[in-house]
Each structure stands twice: as C-alpha cells, then as structure tokens.
Amino acid sequence: MNRPSTVVASGLHKRFGARAALAGVSFAASGGVVALLGPNGAGKTTLLRTLATVLRPDHGSVLVDGLDVADVVQRTEVRRRLGYSPQEPNFAANATVFDVVDYFGIVKGHANIRSRHADVYRVLHEVGLSDRARDRVKDLSAGMRQRLSIAQAILGVPGLVLLDEPASGLDPEQRLMLRDRLSRLGERSTVIVSTHLTEEAAAFAQALHVIDQGRIVYTGTPAGLATTARGRVWLAHGQPVPGAGTRLSWRTPDGWYRCIGDPPAGATFDEPTLEDAYLLLVGSVRRPDAA
Amino acid sequence: MSYSNFPHRAQLHPPPETLHVYGSGGLDPATSVSVELHVQHCDVCRTAVNAAAHSVSQARIDANWFMIAAELDAPRRGIVERTIPRLGLPRDVARLMAATPSLRRSWFIAVVSALLLGMAATNPARPNSSIALFLALAPLVPVIGVALAYGPGVDPAHEITIAAPLSGFRLVLLRTAAVLLTSIMLAGAASLFLLRRDGLIVAAWLLPGLALSSLCLALTTFIRPRAAATIVAVSWLLLAIAVTNNAADQLVLYRGAGQVAFSLLAMAATAAVVVRRRRFDVAAEGSS
Fold first, then answer.
1. Which of A10, B5, B124, B172 keeps 20 to 30 A from A64, CA to CA?
2. Do B73 and A86 count as a contact with CB atoms less than 8 A apart?
3. Does A134 reach chain B within 8 Å, measured CB to CB?
4. Which residues are CB-contacts of B126 (< 8 A; sequence separation ≥ 6)?
5. Which residue in chain B has the smallest CA separation from A161?
6. Which residues does chain A have within 8 Å of residue B174's beta carbon, measured at their own beta carbons?
7. Which of residues 155-194 of B touch A (CB under 8 A)?
C-alpha cells in the first residue's frame, strides 16, 4: 500500500465509566502529517486507539479509504492498511529487536520470509536501530523502545500510520531525527501523531487538531493557531489581578508580566506564540483559575 | 564505438555519461581500454570516474548489505520453534506459537515445581488422598498457561497485535494449542511416574484440565485473563478440597460421572468461546 489513506471520523463518543473520553469528535485527514495536540487526559489516546480499530466507539463512525471499521470484514482490510504505535509501547523482554519487528511482520500477514526480513531491516535502518538488531528488548533505553515501536508501525509502508506520543523518551537529537522521519513518512502515508508539546506539533505537522476534554477545539495549521491569539497577549508592569480579563500570566526574565486573555484598555500587545494560543484555547474551555 | 573516438590526449575528454558507465563497470571492453588510457593522464576525468564508481558501488553495497544483515540478524529459533515445523506446520505459524507469552522459562519452572510438589506429597500409606492432591494440581497447569497466553496485561504488545489484520481468534487458538500440548506433555510425563503404582487414574486430570482451560478462555472474553485464571483456579481448588474432605470416595470427582460432567463443561465453554470469538479482536471494554 503506497498511497496515503483517507480517514474520516464523525461524531465519535466514548465513555469510561462516568468520564467522557470523547465527546463528539469529527475530523478528516488525507496525506501528510497531522498532529493531535492536547493536555494529558484530553482524549488523544482514546481517539488514536479508536482510529487504530482497537477500541470501539459508543457512537460515531470511522472510515478509512471508505471502509467502515465497524464492519468485521472491512475492519480487517483497514488493519492491512494501518500501522500503530501505542503509548508507552512494550515488547517481550527477551526477544531481540529483529525478532520483535519480524514477529509483527508475520502478524501483519507478510508471508514471504525473504522480503519480510529485508523490510524489517529497512524499517530498523529508518529509525536508526539497524546496529542494535541483535540486542534484546530488555537492554534498550526508553527512547530505543519508542523507535522500535515506530519501526513496527511503518513495516510494509502502510497508508495510515498512527503514533501515540512518539517523542516521549527521546532526547533533543532523536526528536530532530523523528521530525525528519515523520516528514518523509508524510509523503507516502497519512501520519497522525499525538503530542502534548506545542513546539513538537509545530515542527512536524502540516495540519493540527487541538483536543481538550474529548472535543476538537481547533483545526488548522500551526501558524494559523498562533494568529488566533493576536490582540490577546500583552505585557504589564505590575502583577495583574487574576480573573479580571487576565486568564493566565507569568513573570518574564526582564521583570515584565506576560498576560493572555482579554486585555485591558491601552495594553502593550506582544506577538503571540503558538503556546500562547494553545493555552488560551485550552484554558478557555477548562478555566483552571476561575475560582 | 571505435578506439579512434577516444584519443588519449587530455584536452579531448570522453563524454560524462561514458565516464559514468565506465565507473560503474558497464562499458564494453574496447571502449573501456580507450577510457582507461585517457584517465591515466587526465585528473578531471579520473575524479569523475571515481565518483561514479563510488556512488554505484555504494548503492549496490547498501542493497546487498540490507539482505545480508537481515539474514544475519534473523531470529535464531528456540526449541519450541524448531519442533513445531517438524509436526508439519509452516515456519510462520511456528513463530506465532513460539511467541506465546506463557511459554517462557518462568512458566516451565513453575509447572515443573508444582508437579514435583504434587508427586513428592504422594504418600504410599494413603494412596487415595495423595493421588487426589496430584489430580487437583495437574489441571491447573494448562489453565494458567492458557490464561497467560493472550490478552491485556499478559501480552506486552497486545494492542499492536489487535490492530493487525491477523484474526485474534486464530492467534488465541494457535497459542492455546501450543500451551495445551506443552502442558499435557509435562503433566503427562509426571503421570507416567505414578502410573505403575496408582494405575490409570493418574490420567484422570486430562478432562478436568481441558474443561477448566476452556472455561478460563471463555471468561477472558468478559474479564482480564489474570482475573479469569484466578477465579477458575480458586473455585476449582475449593471444590476439590470440599470433595476430598467430605466425600466417602476421595476420587469421586475423577470417576465416570465426574468425567462426563467435565466433558459437558468443556463443550459448553468451547461453544461460548466460539460464539464470543470477536471479542479477541478488540480491546477489553472499560479499559481506558
């Protein structure tokens, strides 16, 4: 499968007991790298597991290339087209790196042993693990396990790649490598990546969905997100009174107070960053400082 | 192309494409000779030839290296994986079965110790109560093996396996078969030691073992595998203890009527597993 898949999710709802993990999520993606950005517990993982056909939504539908994952036969076809790396991936401790990826090659139905082994080696090379192929999983660092998980997800060049927090456990140099890999991957697959780091999302994604409390609260480009905070970020001399229009504020290194929210008259505006916009968005739903 | 096309004077260079083909070793012998004579005297063309030779050989080395390295790093097969193909199953199926989480050294050690304990406790002075202990323990060997073969909290990469096109039910069947065969061999070997003294009754754990294993598998379609195994094992031990302490015949569970009951239980539980087989394809409900 060398063509990026088209994913259309509509009206997804999922509850775990009293908590609504997804409260009506709809979105579409077709090619490129898409970031799901949101705070911890926002529903990113639930959404990715639903797209990965692991979790059944209470309501709503997921179509991949027009195939409905609720249908058993069509779901199997969807599973042939997707690669999935879950949050905090783990593998049999005594298996070797090559073993693990080769095993998933079998599970994914790659029957030809020679071409499968060459493909295993290709993906290990792509994530920079080819020199660790004979090492056991228990001897790998957290970052290496993360890369191993990404390797199995891109086996066989799936049209849809779902990566849950792939940057966690990676050092800055490895993150740079991940961005590079994601960008290449986005040319041949639809790549959906969850993260809670705004700079990460801006660095690798063409499209961005901000999720908060089980809802998508922004859809657009990373640059577009920053502009939504224009005119809502200002600098103040003294510490602002919390609540009165100021949603969040923090002291800058040069002694000013940087504030986001509804500015007072005559405020000195500052150029908004992606993070300002994100905080404004996520804070506007939750209002952590409303009390 | 004739020799005269390439006078070996430095100012008349062969065209770049010719140099490139020469560098990658694809030129006919006659033209090769003329290029060779030219590059001996021309630094510019020699550099071009070297560059071509390097890039082509590098690509070839990369491709070959991928294949060689893949074969070198290909997993070495363990004893389970080497044995299964001899039974006529394909190598990939052997790998799927050998990757069963419960078929690990720790499980084998636990099984062998439990069986040794059961055998060591046999007391020739009280044959019935000691054989009852062995028969109560042996069925738990496959139960625990089956419970630890598939599912959340058992298989570390369970979610990735679910998201793959391979049917979860098929994988469950393969792994259950691997575990049952191994368990029957281990507990069967233990039974052989007791056969001479106690007679055929030592094989009476087989049907209870199958019945309890299928019951456990049926329960895993509702609850997590560890919980299912705990419920089945505890209920079974309570029943076995109650019967041993209260019934006139301590082995009544394992005689005719008991065996019929275990067969019925095994069939009912297997039917439940088949009916609920789609549950092996998605994550357990309520797992966040």
1. B172
2. no
3. yes
4. none
5. B163
6. none
7. 156-157, 159-167, 171
Nearest of A52, A70, A63, A59 to residue A24 by alpha carbon: A59
Per-residue tokens: B86? 């001899």
Closest Cβ–Cβ partner in B95, B278, B288 for A103: B95
- Write the pLDDT tens digit of every residue in B133-175: 888 888 988 898 888 888 888 888 899 999 999 888 999 999 8
- pLDDT per residue over A98-138, tens digit each? 989 999 999 998 888 888 888 998 999 989 898 898 899 99
The pLDDT assigned to A112 comes to 85
How far is residue A205's CA from residue B102's CA, in Å, rounded to a whole number?
41
B49-73: per-residue pLDDT in tens? 888 888 777 766 666 666 666 666 6
- Give how far the C-alpha of residue B133 lies from the chain's centroid of Cα atoms, to the nearest Å: 32
The pLDDT tens digits of the residues spanning A156-189 come to: 889 999 999 999 888 888 889 899 989 989 999 9
Which structure tokens are listed for A99? 């073993």
Question: How far is the C-alpha of B267 from the C-alpha of B141, rounded, in Å?
Answer: 19
Give the HSE-up count for residue B104: Cα atoms under 13 Å, Cβ half-sphere: 14
**Smallest Cα distance from B67 to chain A, Å:** 6
Q: What's the CATH superfamily of A1-81+158-220?
A: P-loop containing nucleotide triphosphate hydrolases (3.40.50.300)
Among chain A residues, the shortest Cα distance to B67 is held by A118
SS (H, E, C) chain B: CCHHHCCCCCCCCCCHHHHHHHHCCCCCHHHHHHHHHHHCCCHHHHHHHHHHHHHHHHHHHHHHHHHHHHHHHCCCCCHHHHHHHHCCCCHHHHHHHHCCCCCCHHHHHHHHHHHHHHHHCCCCCCHHHHHHHHHHHCCHHHHHHHHCCCCCCCCCCHHHHHCCCCCHHHHHHHHHHHHHHHHHHHHHHHHHHHHHHHHHHHHCCHHHHHHHHHHHHHHHCCCCHHHHHHHHHHHHHHHHHHHHHHCCCCCHHHCHHHHHHHHHHHHHHHHHHHHCHHHHHCCCCCCC
pLDDT given at position B135: 86
Alpha carbon of B258 to those of B209, B263, B265: distances in Å? Answer: 13, 9, 11
| Residue A6 CB partners (closer than 8 Å, separation 6+) | A28, A29, A30, A63, A64, A65, A66, A190
Provide the ipTM.
0.86
Query: What is the pLDDT at residue B77?
Result: 67
Residue in B159, B165, B286 closest to A79 by CB: B165
Angle, in degrees to the nearest 10, between helices B105-120 and B127-137: 170
B193-201 long-range CB contacts below 8 Å, 24 or more apart? Answer: B193/B119, B194/B119, B194/B122, B194/B131, B194/B134, B197/B124, B197/B127, B198/B127, B198/B131, B201/B131, B201/B135, B201/B251, B201/B254
| CB-based contact A185:A33 (threshold 8 Å) | yes
Mean pLDDT of B202-218: 91
Q: Is the dihedral of CA B269, B270, B275, B280 positive or negative?
A: positive
- Residue A89 touches chain B, beta carbons under 8 Å: yes
For B16-43, what is the mean pLDDT?
Answer: 84
